[in-house]
Here is the input.
Amino acid sequence: MTVEDRDVRLELDLVPGEVVAVLGPNGAGKSTLLSVLAGLLRPDTGRLVLDGTTLVDIDRGVFVPPHRRRTVLLAQQAMLFPHLTARANVAFGPRSTGTSRRDADAAADRWLDAVDATELAGRRPAQLSGGQAQRIAVARALAAEPHLLLLDEPMSALDIAVAPALRQLLRRVLRDSARTALLVTHDILDALALADRTVVVEAGRIVEDGPTREVLARPRSAFAARLADINLVAGIAGGTGPAPDTLHGDGLTLHGRPDDDVRDGGAAVALFTPAAVAVHRDPPTGSPRNHLPVTVTEVESRGAVVRIHAEGPGGAAVFADITAAAVADLDLVPGQPAWFAVKATEVGLHARAGPGRRPGPA
Here is the structure.
């Protein structure tokens, strides 16, 4: 598709049941993409096909209006109907397609239960917190049985304490319903937890497209590199507890603080900031549980700190930010073996979309 006045030219295919994250800086074309898919914006050229039905074909003069597309846009704000109860809000989608009141109410109850909001059914939006309202909005979107769910930064307007719970909720309902979804986000955790695949858009063009782990662990675009300015090691969670605190991947073993949805044997990632890493020439001793053998690949000045780029035994790229004085004391140069040490309390373990979540049949 092409939107000439915004200089946006994008080609994108989605597999049924696949969740694709769209990342990019402000003005890159992410919102334009969602608007075209939702039917809120007519492209200048292009063709859009959803489940075999042509929604847009500019050359043939085809443009299906939004209410007939079987697409649903879940925005940053819940935008519930203020005069309706939560149950009636969720039932609105089925009712608008001609479903009987009884069946629509049954669908609403089913989806309210799916998002753990049954007890909120009788409340009006003014009686709901931000997180509760967004859960109702998720239920309303899914009750419409969309062929394509469009998520426009659904966690961005929520309190930092509420967003993780909604992220886990979306992860569960998207996995359980094998829903095809396009997620626009600026948050690396949204992509890691929800998306099978990640697309990076810059200046109206797709500059990266691949499995989420590969795009974020080995970025090839300026934006993805900035976004991934955090150590990320992907692997498999291990342990015996309900939320294992160990990750094995890329030749490294890391201990950290697990999210509630991390499971033994499940795909996960370990994230830690470069500032949390201490660098040693010899195997370290002391309190940090994570001692990582690495080879220095680059020493880069970054103003007040020096970034030490290194490679783990399995090829994982990791880096540390230390002072110039520390670099001088350690006499670090490319090719030199070293040790990175990081406390387990500084490492977050998060479940990620991956082998445990299969796209549905094409």
Q: What stands out?
A: The radius of gyration is 23 Å. The domain at 244-352 is CATH 2.40.50.100 (OB fold (Dihydrolipoamide Acetyltransferase, E2P)).
